[in-house]
Design a protein that fits this description.
globular; alpha/beta; 353 residues; 2 domains; 7 strands; Transferase, Pyrimidine Nucleoside Phosphorylase, Chain A, domain 3; seven-stranded mixed beta sheet
Length: 353
Amino acid sequence: MAFHPETVGEAGVKFSPVNPEAVPGTPEDSTSLAAARFIKEIGRGKDGARSMTRDDAAILYGAMLAGRVSDLELGGILLSMRIKGESVQEIAGFMQAARPFILPLQAPVRSHYAPVIIPSYNGARKKANLTALLAMLLAREGAPVLVHGVRTDVGRVATAEVFAALGLPLAETSLQVQQQMQQNLPAFMAIDVLSPAMAHLLSLRRILGVRNSTHTLVKLLQPFRNPALRLNSYTHPEYLRMLREYLTDCADVGEGDVFLMRGTEGETVASTGRAQQIDWFHAGQSTTLVPAQQEPLAVVPDTPDNLDAASTAAWIKQVLAGEIPVPENIAVQVSHCLTVAAGIVQDNAASAH
């Protein structure tokens, strides 16, 4: 059952694991968790706070997702973590706890490409949001593409709105995701369907006024049973350092590979201006695929005249029809995605024999 924003702020919102088999042995405990011992450690301010162990982080975040933490304690936890910042071990524990609360998905069988997963939680307010173009270009080449994110974002053009303007329905079930992929179309699943519990924690930003750890976690989600390629982005330098360490030392290698780049207004699509650096994380090793571009572009690529969803969708259709060239940086991003996604399938097949 999807989470709906109108439940935000209601006391006692409870969520059950969507996928109880995701982490064997996960306890189905419905009792409230006394969070004081955790808050005592993480709530001492930026300089005095101590990070939780991975196990404690998993216990706490699992209780938060299940609705087993009181509203008062939950607010204290979210604000404490916002001030302190997440450690690598805390992110690893949070991700471990989140897995049972993510809807499991199945990619089309016998695809030449591993699924490409594109998180979209920021939208755009200064430049056109071209995440849908990236997704369409990849899907057109035969790659199974999942975009997940928010349906709307006040003051921004969300990718879901561009999908709607392109005539692409949002997927409401795992079967619909698979069917759209089989038709060489990208599938967009809103986070309130993919993980209602995580959607609830995201929505608390409207009450507290600040982001929380879940905004980092949703960009790392891997709902497929087989390895996939995740595209991930960051905005602030401290998150680059933390994510690099997490992807090198703590990420589950069995989930596949990750591309990490500075976001385009937070979106994980290459800028049409100067190219961002794109680092590829494979089996705990990092390789720079695209170096950061220092010099301004000699030729400024064509971009939509207006930023609204309808104008962006109309421009994307012109690009797909060949009437407007694909922006060079996005074309390079597509090429690298396809190469690595194909390599994941080949490596997976080789390890199976």
